[in-house]
Each structure stands twice: as structure tokens, then as C-alpha cells.
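Supplementary Methods. Inverse-folding protocol.

Structures were first reduced to a C-alpha cell string of length 280. This string, shown here, constituted the complete conditioning input.
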């Protein structure tokens, strides 16, 4: 921790709250993240929010290639020092959430994401990768602990929500490691966890992924309302039409979104598509 502080101070770096900057310096933790990600010398890694480059260096020691993204150009002199001598790292100062992912992926191989994510971009970033990427094979990401619980939740639990169902369409998520807030500099106000999401496209059978996402969004439009009510409000259906659709999908008309498994969401999406309620 002291060594990291000295490097940051040497280059006059000041933390910016709006970027959610909390860096890791503990070598054991860094290497445990790399080990849990399962990368090898044949793996291409995309790191988002590389910060001071501590995880970047640990990744580069194993991976074939690391594309390290960060939004803060003030980190450039810091990274020039912490990543010195590494020829398999390319630092890109861009906002990953604004990146044309299709264009970026035309230039690279299949890849995994390994990152200590700034908390404020976690859900939008995971959503972007789920919806836009053709080449990402998995994610190993440090996130806020309560977010990790949502990512890995099962139906009929308070943590289960739209992002849970969205992840389940393409991947299997599980918590690899819980991490104390004391492992970061500066120290955040909450604990974290490393979540691993292994992508398995086609694991949930659905006729159209966009229809699935629209169905999930509808189901969680208002968590307190039944699926019947959310269908009526989302798609301007009559109550009788909503009841008929739920009956065909073999879903109780009084059910709520958090009670549906990903497979049941897929069945409902297929019925909405077949009935022309969702048009693509």
C-alpha cells in the first residue's frame, strides 16, 4: 500500500470521486483475482478501469495480451512507471461505456474481461457486454458486494432482478471471493466481491434475445405489481389479453417478476413474440 501511495504522490495524482477510483495494491489479492479468472498465456484480456495498473501488471504476467482501458488521462505518467517493461499491454484512455464495441472487436480475438470495476459503471457495463459483444467469453470482476449478490441471485429472493435474469440468459455467475473494504486505497465505504460470469450462449432457449430483454424489463417495471399488471402497462394490453398470454406461458396470473426463472422468462418472451405483442 505504501509503495502505491508513493508512486501516486510522485506523479502528483489526485483521486477523482466522480470516477470511483479505489485501487488495489495487495499482491496476494491481485494474484488470486488472476488465478480465479482462469486466464493463460493464450488469453486476451480486456481490463476496464485499470487505475494505477497494479491488476494490469498481474494480468500481463500471465495473459497473452491485455487491453487496459481507463477514462482518466492523469494516470498516464503513473501507468508509464507501473507498467514499464511490459510489451503485451496496450493502455487505451477511453470511456469503455461509450466505445463502439463492434468496431473494437473487429480488431481483436475472443477475450475475457478481468477488472476492478468502478462501482458507478458496473451494471451499465455488464449490460453493454451482454447485449453488444460477440467475442467476450467471460467476466471476472470486482464489484460492490450487494451488486455481486444481485448478479448471482436465484428467483424468489429479494436480490433477484432484471440484471440477474439478463446475465442468466448468457452466463452462469458465482461469487469467487469476498473482499474487505480495507484492501483498497483509498478505502471505500462498502465491501466488495469478485464475481465470475462464464458465458454460455444458448444456455437459455429463447426465440429472440431482444424479446427476452423486453420481457424482463416489463416484468420488473414495478416490482410490487403482478406480471399481469406490468403486461397491461408495458404493452397496452387489455386485462383479458394479459391473462390469456400468461395462461399460454403456463404462468400464474398473480405471479410477480422475481418468481420467474430465466427459462420461464424465455417462454413468456416467446409467447409475446408469437402473439405479435413484441415486434422486432
Amino acid at each position: 500500500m505504501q509503495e502505491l501511495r508513493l508512486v501516486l504522490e510522485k506523479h502528483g495524482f489526485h483521486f477523482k470521486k466522480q470516477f470511483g477510483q479505489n485501487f488495489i495494491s495487495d499482491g496476494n489479492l491481485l494474484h488470486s483475482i488472476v488465478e480465479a479468472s482462469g486466464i493463460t498465456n493464450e488469453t486476451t484480456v480486456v481490463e476496464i478501469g485499470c487505475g494505477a495498473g497494479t491488476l494490469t501488471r498481474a494480468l500481463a504476467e500471465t495473459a497473452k495480451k491485455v487491453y487496459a482501458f481507463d477514462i482518466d488521462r492523469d494516470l498516464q505518467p503513473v501507468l508509464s512507471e507501473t507498467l514499464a517493461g511490459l510489451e503485451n499491454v496496450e493502455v487505451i484512455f477511453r470511456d469503455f461505456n461509450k466505445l463502439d464495441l463492434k468496431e473494437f472487436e473487429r480488431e481483436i480475438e475472443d477475450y475475457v474481461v478481468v477488472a476492478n470495476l468502478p462501482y458507478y459503471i458496473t451494471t451499465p457495463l455488464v449490460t453493454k457486454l451482454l447485449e453488444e459483444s460477440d467475442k467476450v467469453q467471460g467476466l471476472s470482476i470486482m464489484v460492490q458486494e450487494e451488486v455481486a449478490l444481485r448478479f448471482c441471485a436465484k428467483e424468489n429472493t429479494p436480490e433477484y432482478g432484471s440484471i440477474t435474469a439478463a446475465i442468466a440468459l448468457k452466463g452462469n455467475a458465482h461469487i469467487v471471493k469476498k473482499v474487505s473494504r480495507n484492501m483498497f486505497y483509498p478505502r471505500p465505504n462498502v465491501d466488495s466481491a469478485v464475481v465470475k460470469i462464464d458465458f454460455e450462449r444458448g444456455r437459455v432457449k429463447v426465440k429472440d434475445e431482444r424479446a427476452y430483454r423486453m420481457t424482463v424489463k416489463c416484468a420488473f417495471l414495478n416490482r410490487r405489481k403482478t406480471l399481469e399488471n406490468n403486461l397491461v402497462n408495458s404493452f397496452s394490453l387489455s386485462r383479458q389479453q394479459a391473462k390469456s398470454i400468461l395462461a399460454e406461458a403456463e404462468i400464474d396470473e398473480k405471479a410477480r417478476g422475481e418468481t420467474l426463472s430465466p427459462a420461464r422468462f424465455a417462454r413468456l418472451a416467446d409467447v409475446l413474440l408469437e402473439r405479435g405483442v413484441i415486434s422486432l
